[in-house]
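Readers of this paper often ask what the protein records in our data store actually look like. Below, we set out a record of this kind in full and without editing:
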Amino acid sequence: MSVKALVITGPTASGKTSAAIALAHRFNGEIVSADSMQIYKYMDIGTAKPDEEEKEGIPHHMLDIVEPWEEYSVAQYADDARKCIRDILKRGKLPIITGGTGLYINTLVENIEYSAAPEMNPEILAEIEYYYAQNGAEALHFLLENEDSEAAEQIHFNNVKRVMRALGMKRSTGMTLAQRNAASKSRPKEFDFTVYAVDTPRDKLYNRINLRVDKMLEAGLLDEVKKVVDLCQKAYEQGAAHEKTLSKTALQAIGYKEFIDYFDGKCDLETAVERVKQGSRNYAKRQLTWFRKAPWVNWIGLEELTKIELEV
């Protein structure tokens, strides 16, 4: 079977972006980002978004498509990414989906259709919101662990919005996340994906993460965070945004909320930097856990990845 779409994934700072660009040169490909933070405009340094020089002339899609004060869902991503993949294939090129957002990649590979999801009972959601207000994020996540353990494993307790939705959907439909996903795969399979994940020794990966944070600071990350916050404030004053700061989804980007706390006087710079590094290492660990469970992932070293042979 010929490869119709290639996926290059793995934990943050593993080198997947450069590998994908090298493969795009070899196989006449174009890159479709699967990074939930690189979709945001102006958030370049902190999301390790490739600049024009790093792209090496390879077309990149799904970058810089959303304002930092706007929300963006996995359902929107699925629709937008599939449009990109169709267009690339139509032009006779190889789509190379590249990024580390497990939910995005899972949606494409597992052929999940979110538009068919049932509605959540508003009374149930109100009960969940009240419980969270009274007991906090960790207690809310514990409820999800008891009612849908697989969903709880995939969603960090700090991502309260997703925890609430998962719990609300379970109580509204009586179905777990896995059961709903299975039911949503009724649409005909549109693409054949071959998936590779970069396998990097844990100590080497963590060193790469720490070094990358230092380089981001040298490249002007603090100034970038200030700029993004100012743009969000201006958008709010002009009525274009509902909040004075980044949207809830944009604030999930490691390296922004930590330095916003620093600017607000909630911590010193050294503490903020360490929180970014620790948060990035924790995120890499969660990515590894996510992708290790996927049966369709082929783990491979970075050097070996750039030498793979494909029938395209």
Summary: The chain has a mean pLDDT of 92. Residues 14 and 205 are 6 Å apart (CA to CA). The two ends are 9 Å apart (CA to CA). The beta strands are 5-9, 29-33, 60-61, 94-98, 193-198, 297-300.
